[in-house]
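Name: ATP synthase epsilon chain
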Amino acid sequence: MAVLHLKIITPKRVALEKEVEKITVPSTSGEITILPKHAFLFTLLSEGIVRYKTGREDEYLAIGGGYLETDGERVELLVTRAYGQDAIDQAATEKAIEHAKVEMKTPKDKQQLKEVSSLLRKSLIDMKLLKKKAPKTFSEH
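Structure predicted for ATP synthase epsilon chain:
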């Protein structure tokens, strides 16, 4: 079976490098699934959940925004962050969501609203990732 060489790069390191059957990413225009022999593509990524298939299993991780490039044989993601379920503290994430919801009701200024919105968005992505199947060992913040 044909595979893709997936490489996920953050400012700190190469976060993941492996052979996958397919990958689904959150782009700024919606979700995109890349299969082997996909046409050349360069696109902007939104923060969200990446799903990739290795064998019979789907694996998941959260990413920050960035870029994706593929030539149909390799897929490279350059993102601000990438991490798995094991890097998320559920209690702290739930607390962050509640805090952000309170702060959004009465922001001091536009900058605070922007920061709180970003925290809420990241925390909601983290909670969504926690609801996926059993965690894999994969960490980076």
